Amino acid sequence: MILIIGAGPVGLATALRLHQNKIPFLIVEKRENINIASKASTFLPAVLPYLDEMGVLDGIIDKGIKISNIKYINLDDNAELTLNIHEIKNECSHPYRLHLEQSYLCKEIIKKLTLSSAECIKTGIEFLYYINNKTGITARCRNDKNEIIQINADWIIGTDGINSQVRKSMKLSLKGYDFPNPVLRLFFKDLPEDIKHKLAGVTYFIKTKETLSILQMKNEWRVIIRLENIPKEQLCNTGFQLNYLNGFFDNNIWLSAPTQYDLYWVGQKLVQNNIIQRAMLIGDSAHSTNTRGGMNMNFGIISGILIADSITHFYHGDITESELINSQKMRLIAARELLLKTTESLLTPQTIIDDKRFSNECFRTDFIKKCSLLNS
Ligand SMILES: Cc1cc2nc3c(=O)[nH]c(=O)nc-3n(C[C@H](O)[C@H](O)[C@H](O)COP(=O)(O)OP(=O)(O)OC[C@H]3O[C@@H](n4cnc5c(N)ncnc54)[C@H](O)[C@@H]3O)c2cc1C
Question: How far, in Å, is the centroid of ligand 1 from the Cα of 84?
């Protein structure tokens, strides 16, 4: 049996894949209910075929919005560039991004899993630590009555997020750095017409080296701002937020305060090793990166599905244990390459506008593929 710790998008996608491959598993989640907080909200073209294949895309697609255009606008000189994901339609089955809160995917997977086996998800149970035994691992957990329970499994997979307890139990840590300034997200039901007519599904505006991005969701717009050295209290002040937007666009058209806002901190971090004996780390427990359109979550989901397939091959005797271990190690190499390295998929909006290579179709499609994680 495979023990999965944490019912976030990565743990749930891993579990669903194991379930559909008929490999026994159990997910243990410390919360009573899944986390519905607003977090990642972009499903990239690389992950959509997997969700489709596992039968969960149909249940969520109408709850979100399909986005194909990404636009870069420099307000200083009005230079702009639009990239259209449809340009890669011959190379991927879902040439669009789905803008939708990650919690919708979690709910859909839980619905699918519990329909066939209500016993496969145990909520209100916190994983504490594990020890190795002769055939696998023994995990110690605490239930909501404060009782310690013991679970034996062949393998343990830590998909328990950035503060992973499984990672601590493996005596590993994330190495890298935290960005000193938080990201400010403002949620608007509607935007001023003067701005709206310029927008694509994702729009990056640049002005005097500052960047602001606007994301279209099904029923709202999200404005994402990265400001340096502004005290938290000021960032949380709606008067300051509106002044900043009006200043950025040189007008006084932002009159209504956002319906909601939040601040979150990001970093660029990777674990040194993602597998030790019978314990593995997948998702935020193994890596964190800046937002960049859902890359961290999407990469984690793909890793979970690929590892579930490798585990299946191992159970069927099609691959050896060392081949399974290698497939997990490859995900660490891929994470270093795709999430952390300054590859071309991480070009800044200004460099993208300036880069003459974008007039070349091959260069453009290659770039769109990288941003869509189609090389993962
Ligand atoms: C405000 C915000 C905005 C974000 N925006 C983006 C974005 O734009 N793009 C992007 O790629 N990513 C974004 N992220 C990050 C994204 O949400 C994560 O990459 C994603 O949630 C990772 O999924 P996961 O399943 O690995 O971990 P999580 O979603 O963190 O799930 C971990 C689960 O494990 C459970 N758990 C933790 N400890 C234990 C324990 N000891 N025992 C049992 N269960 C436990 C938790 O309760 C949780 O349910 C954002 C995050 C935040 C907070």
Answer: 29
